[in-house]
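In full, the data.
>
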Amino acid sequence: LGGERPGKPGRGSENKLAFVMAVQTTDDGRPLFLRVDPLPFTQQAIAVWAKRALAPSTYALTDGLSGFRRLHQVVACHHRLILGSGRQSAQHPEFHWVNTLLSNLKTAISGTYHAFKFEKYAQRYLAEFQYRFNRRFNLKTLLQRLARAAAFAKPRPEWQIRLAEVHR
């Protein structure tokens, strides 16, 4: 995530925030749940994330990013599709839902938050998108559940609330 600014383009840019998106699908390939976490694209960071975020029985299909190389040590089956860049990789059928959800995420952020300060708020925006997507099957209770969680949450000082962002 991040706008066009001077500096290094693409992955690894100091003007962008790296994040991993995992989509759980049904047997016929439809998306069920989404996990979005900001983290660097390193083998160690992705392996630590996978141990925490993915079940050991997971079948993982990833792109050719070198950070995914150690994933086979964490999940039951890992298959890397090295497709290159550009339209060919973006339109590959195996990554249809990841690319669709990524597009929806970018549209939601740019349409809702016109002055997007990705350095400061990206984790919150990603978490909000993930929360709404994972609860989309029962939208009638979404607001009730959020209000209930807010009502039963204990008051906390701002420094404690910000700890969730730092220690994720």
Remarks:
- The chain has one domain: 19-166.
- The mean pLDDT is 80.
- DSSP finds six helices and four strands in the chain.
